[in-house]
Design goal:
Elements: H1 2-27, E1 32-38, E2 49-50, H2 61-79, E3 84-90, E4 92-94, H3 102-112, E5 116-119, E6 124-125, E7 128-130, H4 131-143, E8 148-153, E9 160-161, H5 162-173, E10 179-182, E11 190-191, H6 194-198, H7 206-218
Parallel strand pairs: 1-3, 2-11, 3-8, 4-7, 5-10
Antiparallel strand pairs: 6-9
Length: about 220
């Protein structure tokens, strides 16, 4: 049907665009590439803590396109041994202008006065990175890029419960808490930082990340 055709077109667009970009990169003689992939590449996650060895299980079209991009990059490094490449599988990326993720949607709902619906309030959460921390890590990595192909997850440190996450967003934005919790849907997970820290990442805590995010969105000085 039309939905399948649309999904196929999105997949082809993502993969063809990525392949074309990497070909230009190699042709220009670039020393290395940092590719921003996604946790969606894992598909259905059953591990309580996700590591780089967590099995890939039926990713959606977006996740499949990211996996194809990763594989394309790995192949490029094999053909050009002088190059270095880092794949980062991203969780929710937050900062001013963030959208299309759980935290951005939740904060937008809070700001509009909606009742927030959230799941698994007692589950631990660290599936977030602030865009400034992501940029700092990429900059530092490029200065000391390791040879060959590297793949890493990335997230915040010091996981807290979903209840604490939602509560912090309400308090920091100055809104009264209005939230309904349930324990249905996909099982929650956290993300291991071991590999990212080996590569030089210096994570910010979940609380500090969310505080910075709300301030980015709500502080008049940052508008």
């Amino acid at each position: 049907g039309e939905q399948r055709i649309g999904a196929d077109a999105r997949y082809a667009s993502n993969v063809d665009g990525t392949r074309t970009l990497f070909n230009h990169v190699a042709g220009a003689g670039a020393r290395g590439v940092v590719f921003l992939s996604s946790m969606s590449a894992y598909g259905r996650i059953r591990d309580s803590v996700v590591t780089e060895t967590t099995p890939i299980d039926s990713p959606d079209v977006y996740g499949q396109s990211k996996l194809a991009g990763e594989q394309c990059l790995a192949g490029m490094v094999e053909r050009h041994p002088h190059m270095t490449a880092l794949v980062l599988r991203l969780p929710a990326v937050v900062g001013k202008g963030a959208r299309h993720n759980f935290l951005a949607g939740t904060l937008a709902g809070i700001m509009s006065g909606a009742v927030i619906e959230a799941r698994y309030p007692d589950a631990l959460f660290n599936n977030v990175v602030h865009v400034a921390d992501l940029a700092d890590f990429i900059r530092a990595y490029c200065e000391r890029a390791l040879p060959g192909f590297q793949l890493s997850n990335i997230a915040a440190s010091e996981a807290v419960t979903i209840r604490e996450v939602i509560g912090l967003l309400f308090r920091r934005s100055g809104r009264n808490e209005r939230v309904d919790y349930s324990n249905t849907g996909k099982a929650p997970f956290t993300i291991s930082l071991e590999r990212a820290c080996e590569l030089g990442y210096r994570p910010r805590s979940v609380r500090d990340t969310l505080t910075a995010f709300v301030d980015d969105v709500c502080s008049p000085s940052r508008q």
